[in-house]
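hey m, so remember when u said the tokens were messed up on ur end? i reran from scratch. heres the input so u can diff it against urs
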Amino acid sequence: MSKLGKIYGIGVGPGDSDLLTVRAVKILEKVDVVFAASSTKNDYSNSLAIASEYINETCEVVKLGYPMTRDKDILQQAWEDNCHTAVKYISQGKNAAFLTLGDPLIYSTFGYMMQTMNRIHPEVEFEVVPGITSYQAAAAKSKQVLVESGQNLLLTSGVADPEKFSQTLEAVDNAVILKAYRNFPELREIVGGMKKMNVKFYTRLGMDGEAIYLDINEVPEKTHYLSLMLLTAACGD
């Protein structure tokens, strides 16, 4: 039996292909297989589109479909099915890269995949290659200091209960809200009334359709799922 190959979890950054790390590029130039998460609705993969120019010509690209649903049973089955698919390749001794937007360990498809694999195929070896996050890229675009001195920084998701946001945000100096498209009307109302913070809204960073809003009230009611907010202490702007 062939020695098992390794799976590299590679963060491809938020959208601009120039933001892949040197380490990520070197791995993509030598792996045998690339796994790219895609929607079961349209088979498209943002992470693959970003990293495609660095993938070697002999590499096999395998799209792993994930349903856009909140049903935990359906999602769990998808994680397990895709893990079994990945094992079919690495059991042949092939090394593989699993592409994911941003960083592999922050609100990432890869995180679920790795945890599921550790449970059902604990013999599989992983290596994680960090990636630049969307909020780092957003801060750089705006030349906005995210946190300094004795301040704190909250990292959260728009998927969280909107009713808890107001109290939570009042207790922090700065905040990042990823997946800001979720519960956006409620989030806009909450952050719009926070005078102690400056609010910036970003969508599709580094991709076609990129937009940055300095006024939260100008953001369309329905915004893209690749959206985030930066809330920073007013004195730090």
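this time it looks ok to me. The mean pLDDT is 91. if urs says something different then somethings off w ur setup not the seq
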